[in-house]
Automatic annotation (TrEMBL):
Signal sequence region: 1-21
TM annotation in the entry: none
Name of one Pfam family that matches: Phosphonate-bd
Main location: periplasm
Family: Belongs to the bacterial solute-binding protein SsuA/TauA family.
Keyword annotations from UniProtKB, A to Z: Signal
Subcellular location as annotated: Periplasm
GO CC terms: periplasmic space
Nucleotide-binding is among the record's keywords: no
Name of the featured protein: Putative phosphite transport system-binding protein PtxB
Any single GO BP term: alkanesulfonate transmembrane transport
């Protein structure tokens, strides 16, 4: 009996150590190229390695669709993504939630010219409203939902157009559009870019669900636990490493939230329905 147990135990331990020895590959859906990924997350990579004892490898992906394909093909274990992307990723890959990454002041707004003709939401009826990237949580879905919450129906009470943020600001100043849908940080950047123009907010949505780190559904349990516990026990240190990236300043003042579940993103699903998307099997293009 003892002789048969020893080989079995050896196999079990070898399998476990093999799983732990394999690099854990980490991707981010909104950063293209390895150089940019290293600049933003190189410090975090080292910190996560230190806190987990795992070999963390940064893997660039060219798009959110590519991230799903990489996950389904077994080419990445961890993906950091936005709330709108998560909803589709959940449908296509059924990943496990590791931890949410809070973004303070992460909410959608609809801005107009402070000295322009739009004074109330009713003034927007029949007008053109610009949104940012198609399918963006805070530049498209969120602003549309903020208007829907005030009973302005997307595609019926107003015309939604997709225009890049600074181009939209110029169009607003010229009078070609009536309003812009965007998030708090983007409005601040527009105010800096166009100091001679004054903007006012006519609609503000609730705080948006957080960005979220997910793990491939078949990631070894010991890897999943090690990564999750690192955020539980060393959240402040890991956030400090995240903030070494310039673009990651959006997380400044935020925390990692481990008490998060899929239903927390039902608000995002309602946003998709607001713009006429009833199923979540593909990204909005």
């Amino acid at each position: 009996m003892f002789r048969t147990l020893v080989p079995a135990l050896a196999i079990t331990l070898a399998t476990a150590f093999s799983a732990m020895a394999e690099p854990v590959r980490f991707a981010v859906t909104d950063i293209e190229g390895l150089e940019a990924l290293q600049q933003e997350f190189g410090g975090f990579q080292k910190a996560l390695e230190e806190k987990t004892g795992l070999d963390i490898e940064l893997i660039p992906v060219s798009s959110r669709t590519a991230a799903v394909e990489a996950m389904n093909a077994g080419h990445v274990e961890l993906v950091l993504t936005g709330p709108a992307e998560y909803v589709v990723m959940k449908q296509l890959s059924d990943p496990r939630i590791v931890v949410a990454w809070q973004r303070p002041d992460y909410f959608a707004q609809v801005a107009v010219l402070a000295n322009g003709p739009i004074r109330t939401l009713n003034d927007l009826k029949g007008k053109k409203i610009a949104f940012g990237a198609v399918g963006s949580t805070s530049q498209h879905l969120g602003p549309a939902q903020a208007l829907a919450d005030q009973e302005l129906i997307y595609g019926k009470d107003y015309e939604g157009v997709i225009i890049a943020r600074n181009v939209a600001a110029e169009a607003l100043i010229r009078g070609d559009i009536a309003a812009i849908g965007l998030n708090f940080g983007h409005l601040n950047s527009i105010r800096k870019a166009f100091p001679d123009a004054a903007f006012a907010v006519v609609a503000r949505g609730r705080d948006l669900p957080n960005d979220i780190l997910v793990a491939r559904k078949d990631v070894p349990e010991e890897v999943f636990v090690k990564v999750r516990e690192a955020f539980l026990k060393h959240g402040n240190e890991l956030m400090g490493a995240v903030l070494m990236g310039e673009d990651n300043q959006k997380f400044k003042g935020g925390v990692f939230i481990t008490d998060v579940k899929d239903s927390d993103y039902d608000y995002v699903r309602s946003m998709y329905r607001t713009i006429g998307i009833e199923s979540f099997g593909s990204f909005v293009e």
